Structures are given as structure tokens and as C-alpha cells.
Amino acid sequence: MAKAATPSRPAAKKHGVAKSSAPRSSAAKSAASTKLVPLFDGIVIRPTVQEEVLASGIVIPDTAKEKPQQGDVIAVGPGRVDENGKRIAMDIQLGDRVLFAKYTGQEVKIDQEEVIVLHEKDILAKVV
């Protein structure tokens, strides 16, 4: 018994719309470089690297370096939600340089780059 030939559809199309691998939202676009999208009042910071050689030529070993307390904001969440369900806007914006407490946040290594994820309340000040 021979089956009737049925027209085949390309696998990439569904309901006449081609699927694309491009990000769909602006949040996804900004997170494409960091691969992290913070939730609520979360902030992703790239810590500034301390100089390894002082002006006098003395090399500082890794064991003597202090934990960084300053960094650049590379991703910002939408803000926290209050008791009434309203979203509270963030004071920190993408690209800000900030000071944060020495042992706060969660250190994460993404694509050989170390970043710190913390909450807005852990930010001490903006560097202007």
C-alpha cells in the first residue's frame, strides 16, 4: 500500500513565522554580555583589579592583595517590590562605579571572569 505524498514543512517555521536565535527583550540583550540577569534589587558588579606593581616597582603577591571594595555595575535588576505590590526603582544604574562592603555579596565566576552579585542595600556609595 502506497501512502499519499504529503507536503513537508520546514522545521524552522511554525505557523508561518520563522524562529530566530536573536534575544527577544532588552533585558536579554544587556545580559548577553554578562550571562546573568539579576532579579528584584540584585546587582552584578565587576570588581576593579588592584595594581600588582606599586609606583616604586614593588610587586604585590596575590596573598597580600586586599579584597576589592569598588567595582563597575554590569547588570541591574528591575527593583524590589514593596508590600503593596509596587515596584521600587533602583538608585544604581548600569555603568555606575560603586563602593560596597568588603565581604558582602556572592562571588561568581562566569566565562573566566569573576563578578559579584549583591543586593542594592549592600552598596555603600556611588563613585562620581
Q: Would you mind describing this structure in some detail?
A:
This protein has one helix and eight strands. The chain has 128 residues and is mostly beta strands. The chain has a single domain, classed as Roll (10 Kd Chaperonin, Protein Cpn10, Chain O). The protein has a six-stranded antiparallel beta sheet with strand order 6-7-3-4-5-8. A two-stranded antiparallel ribbon has the order 1-2. The chain is elongated, with a radius of gyration of 23 Å.
Features:
two-stranded antiparallel ribbon, 7% helix, 128 residues, elongated, mainly beta, 1 helix, 10 Kd Chaperonin, Protein Cpn10, Chain O, 6-stranded antiparallel sheet
Explain briefly what this protein structure is.
This protein is mainly beta and 128 residues long.
SSE blueprint:
Layout (H helix, E strand, L loop, with lengths): L12 E2 L2 E2 L7 H9 L7 E6 L22 E7 L20 E4 L5 E5 L2 E7 L3 E5 L1
Antiparallel strand pairs: 1-2, 3-4, 3-7, 4-5, 5-8, 6-7
Bulk shape:
elongated
* CATH architecture call: Roll
CATH class identity: Mainly Beta
The tally of structural domains comes to 1
The value of Rg in angstroms is 23 Å
| E-strand count | 8
Largest sheet: 6 strands, antiparallel
- Unreliable segments of 5+ consecutive residues: 11-32
* Alpha plus pi helix count: 1
Strand content: 25-35%
Give the N-to-C terminal Cα separation: 79 Å
Strand pairing plus helix content: what structural class? mainly beta
Q: Helix amount, in percent?
A: under 10%
* CATH topology category name: 10 Kd Chaperonin, Protein Cpn10, Chain O
